[in-house]
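SEQUENCE-TO-STRUCTURE ENTRY
===========================
What this section holds: a protein sequence and its matching fold, both as plain text.
Question of interest: how does this chain fold, as expressed in C-alpha cells?
***
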Amino acid sequence: MSEQNLLFTPMEINGMQLKNRLVRSATYEHMATEDGKVTDQLINFYSKLAKGGVGLIVLGVAYVQENGHGFPCQIGIYSDDHIAGLKNMVDEIHNHGAVVALQIAHAGRQTTSAAIGGQTPIAPSAIEPDPFFNTSPREMTEEEINETINAFGAAAVRCKEAGFDAVQLHATHGYLLAQFLSPHTNRRTDEWGGNQENRMRFVTEVNNSVREAVGNDFPVLIKLSVEEGLENGTTLDEASNVAMRLSQIGIDAIEISGGTIADTAFMMSRGDVPIDMLTRNADPAAKEQMEDFFYSIKDMVKYEEAYWLGHAEKIKEVIGDVPLILVGGMKYPQTMAKILEENKADLISLSRALIREPNLPKEMAEGRKDPAKCGFCNRCLLAVVGDKPLACYNSG
C-alpha cells in the first residue's frame, strides 16, 4: 500500500464508520436563517462537500442557547424547531456517502449585546473588552453554569434525533468551553476556576451531560485548544493534561486547534492577513492603528503546512488509543499521508482547502498528487464576518 492510500482506508470511531481518514473541519457558514434554521443554501453547500468525497463532515458552530449566539445566520440547536431542517441536511449528506457530526457551542464572551437580544454576554469571569467584539461580559452565576451544562445535553439529544452520526464539543477558538479552560478568561475563585482541575470542571460536566443524554454508543468528539497565544492563556502543557483527562473519561476523538476569535484569530487560520478587508470600514485614526497592529503580526502567523503538527505529537503521547484529528493548513496529499503513516495523527482535517475545492478528496483518491489550490489568503473567513456566505473569494 502506498502512503497516500492510507488516507483512504476506512476507520471506526465508537461505531461510526468512516470511508476514509479525511475530515471537513467545522466552519461557520453564514447561511442559516436569523433564528438558526437550515436553508436550501446550506443543504446545497454540504451536498457538494459530501459529493466531493470527504469521509466525515463536521457542521460548524451550532449554538445551544440563544444567549450563546455569536454571529448572524449561524446554525442553532437550542430548540426542537431546528431538528426537521437539520434532518433534511443530514439525509442529503448521507445520500452522498459521508457521515456527519454537529459541532455544538456557546459563544460566551465572543458575541455582542445586539446579537443576543440586548443582553450582556456571559462568561466565566467579567473581564476587559476584547479587540474584536469590544464587549465586557458579566460573570456567570452558578445557576447559569448548570443551565448551560444542561443545554449542551439537550442539544446533543436534538443532534441525535436529527440523524447525525456524532456530536463535537467546541472547546477552542475562544468559545465558552475554552473560556473556562483558559486562565486568561477564567479568573474565578470558586469551584469553577482557579487551579486547572477546577477550570476543567465545566468541560468535564458538559461532556458528562452530553454522554448521559446520547448514551455510550454515540460518538462524542471534542475540538480542543492547544495554544491560545495570549498572556496567561492556554498552553500546550495545560492542553495535554486536559486531553489526557478527556481520554480517561471516554471522549471518542480529539481534534486540536488554537487561537481565539476575539484576540488571536490568525493563530487558528495562519496565512495572509488581508489588511484591506480588516480596515475597510474603520475611521482614519482607527484604521492607522489597526494597520500597525496587523502588520506587526504578519510574520507571527505566516503560513506553514501542518502548523499544529508539533502540538499533535505531544497530545498523541497522552491520549492512548483515542483518535487524534489534525487540522492546520494541510496542502500536499503526500504530507497528509506521511503524518498518518508516522502515526502522528489518525485523521486529517481540512477547512479552507475544501472551501476552494470541495472535490479535493475525490481527486486525491483517484491519485492526485498536486497540492490544494488554496492560498490561505483568509478572505473566505473574513467574508463571513462581513455578512457574506462562506465561499472562496480569491479563486483567480
Notes: The CA atoms of residues 137 and 354 lie 35 Å apart. The longest strand covers residues 56-63.
